[in-house]
Amino acid sequence: MATNTSNVTAALPKPMKATSNGAFQHENPLDFALPLLILQICLVVAFTRALAFLLKPLRQPRVIAEIIGGILLGPSAFGRSEKFLHTVFPPRSMTVLDTVANIGLLFFLFLVGLELDLRSIRRTGKKSLAIAGAGITLPFLLGIGTSFVLRSTISKGSAHAPFLVFMGVSLSITAFPVLARILAELKLLTTDVGRIAMSAAAVNDVVAWILLALAIALSGSNTSPLISLWVLLCGAGFLVFSIYVIKPLLELMARRSPEGEPVKEIYICITLLLVLASAFVTDTIGIHALFGAFVVGILVPKDGPFPGVLIEKIEDLVAGLFLPLYFASSGLKTNVATISGAQSWGLLVLVIATACFGKIIGTMCISLPEREHLTRTVLSKRKDLDTELRLLACFHSSRNIPTTINLVECSRGTRKRGRLCVYAMHLMELSERSSAISMVHKARKNGLPFWNKKRDDRDQMVIAFEAYQQLSSVTIRPMTAISALSTIYEDICTSAHQKRAAMILLPFHKHQRVDGSLESLGQSLREVNQRVLRHSPCSVGILIDRGFGGTTQVSSSDVSYKIAVPFFGGRDDMEALAYGMRMAEHPGIMLTVLKVVPPSGKTLMTLEGQDTSMIKVENDKNSDSEADSELFFSEFIQHAAKKLQDSVSHEERLVESKADIISALKSMSKSNLFLVGRMPPVAPLLISTDTPELGPVGSFLASSDFSGTTSVLVIQHYNPNANLHPLVEEEENEDTDDGTDTPVLVDKY
Asked: Most CB atoms closer than 10 Å: which of 214, 561, 667, 701?
C-alpha cells in the first residue's frame, strides 16, 4: 500500500515555490510561481492591448481582443510550439493562473452588478420586459434543441438536465458590459433604442444568472434529487439574507458617505470583504462564487459617491490586469485545430447559427412594432420655430459653465417673440474604463440624462444651469454626449440637427492661466472643434474665455458688458453682427460696431503689409459679395436707429495697411467680449499662428499680442454644404419644425 502511494506521489508534478533566489544563484525564475505569474500577466495584457489597438478601426470592444488574444496564446496558435507553451504556460502553473483569473472575474461581476441599476429596469416598462423575454426564450429553447444534437454526437454520457440548462443559458445570455460598450461606440447609448436595449440586457443578465445557478445546482456529482433541492433552498436563503442583512448594511455605509467628503476606507474594506464572503458562501452552497459577488454588486445603493468610489478603487486593477487573464486561461484550454471533419464544422455552424437566429429573430419580432411607433411619434410633432432661438451650448468641465451662462444671459434679449432655448450638452469622453457606461442609467426615453433626486458631484454642473433657469426666462435642457473624443463631434452635430439649433457654442481648447496666457488642454479637444466646424448643420461659435463675467454667474440685474463687433464683410461677419444685435436688446449690454473699410480702389485682402500668399481659399467660399455685405450693414443701421439707439454705436474706419487694422482692433480692447466672423475677407494679421481654425482675425484676438482680459467669440455662418450624416434617430419630447432649413441668426433680421 505504501509503495502505491509513493508511485502516485512521484507521478504528480512538483509544486512550485513562490519566489526564486535569483539568476545569480543559478535558479530559473520561470520555475517559480511569482515571477512566472508576473511574466504571464505582462505577456497577456501587452498582447491583448496590441490586438485591441489593431481592432479599434473595426470598433470592436476590448473584450473581443482579449478573447482572440487568449485563443492565439493557446494551443491554437503560439501554443502549438511546445517549448513556448511549457516555458510560459507550464501545466503546473495553471492552478495559480486560473485562481488569479477567477479572482479578477469575481470582482468584475461585482462591478457589473454595481453598474446595474434595477430602477432603470422598472422605468422601461412592459416593452423592454417583452423584448428581454423574447430575447431569452427563443434562444433558450433553441439551445435546448441543440443540446440533444450535441449529446448524441460529442457529449455522450453528460448529465441530461444540467447540460440542457447550460446550453440554453449559453445561447440566450447577453453580456451586459459588452453590449453597453458597443452601444456607446455606435452613438446609441443615451437614445431610446439604447435605453430599451440596455434595460432588456439587464433583465437578461439577472434571469441568466438565476438559470446558471440552477444549472450548477443540478450538475453536482451526487445524483440525489435532494442535493439539488438543498442547493436551491440554500441559494434562496442566501438571497433573503442578502436583501435583509447585507443590503441595509450597504445602505447605512452609503448614507454615511455624504457629498463632498471622502468615503471612509473602512467602508471600502467592509464592502470588498462582503464580496469575498458572499462568493465563499455561494461556492460552499454549490452555486458558483461569481453569483455571490454579482448579488452584492446589485445591492449596493446607486446614489451618492459611494458606488463611484468603489468603481474607482478596483476597476483599473481588475479590468486592466486580472480580467484579461481569465480569457487567456480559457484560450489556453481551447484548440481550434481540433475542429476537423464535416461533423465538427457542422456542429460549430449549428451552434453559431442557432445563437444568432434565436437572438435576432426573437428580439426583432417584439421590437419592430416599437420602431414603427417611435417613427410615427417623431413625424407628428413639428411646427414653425420662428419665435424661438435655440442654442446648443457644449462644455467639458465646470470651468466652462460661468462664462457659458453669462453668454446665454446676454443672448436672451427682451423681445416678446424672442424666446431662448438652450441645450446644455456635457461632453464626456468615453474611455476604456467600463464605468464610463454607467451614465446609461440616467438616460430618459428622449435621450436626455436622468438626474436622480439625490445628486452626486457630477450633477453639480447641471444644477448650475437649472438654477439659472429658475432665475430667468430661458429654457434650459441638459444633455450628455458620451463618446470617444475622436467621434464626439458626430453627437454634437447630430443633436444640433435634431434639436433644430441655430448655433453651436463650443469652448476653446485653451484656457487662461493666472498670468493671462492661454494654455492648451490637448490636441484632441482642438480636433473636436475643427470637426464640428466642418460638419455642423448650423452656425458655430468658438468661445475664447478670458473671464467673461468673472468666475461666477452674473445675475440679470448686474449685467453690464461692452461688446465689440469688427465688421469686415462676408457671411461670417454678418452672422456675428446679427448675434450682437440680439445681445444689444439686453438692457445691460452696450454694443459697439466698427466697420473697417479699405481705400478706394483696394480691398481688405490687398492692403499694404499683407502677405496675400497666406490667404486661405476658404475666404472665397465663406464670403458674400460686397453688395450683400453693404446691404446687410445698412439694414443693421436702420434697425439700430429705430429700436436700439440707446445701446448701439457704430462707426466706419478707413484702413490702409495691416497695421491700421491691428490698431483699430486694439482700440476696442477695453470691451468685455468681441464677436468676430471666422473667415472675413481679410488677409491674416499674424505671420504664423497655432490656431488657424479661428481665421485671420480670430487667431489674432486669441493671441498674446492682443488683450489678456477680453473674451472672444469666433462665429462661423451655417454652411449648407456641410457633410452631415445623422447617426441616430432620437425621439424628441418637444416640438420641432416641419422640415424647413435650420434657422440662422442672419435670417432673424
From this structure: 701
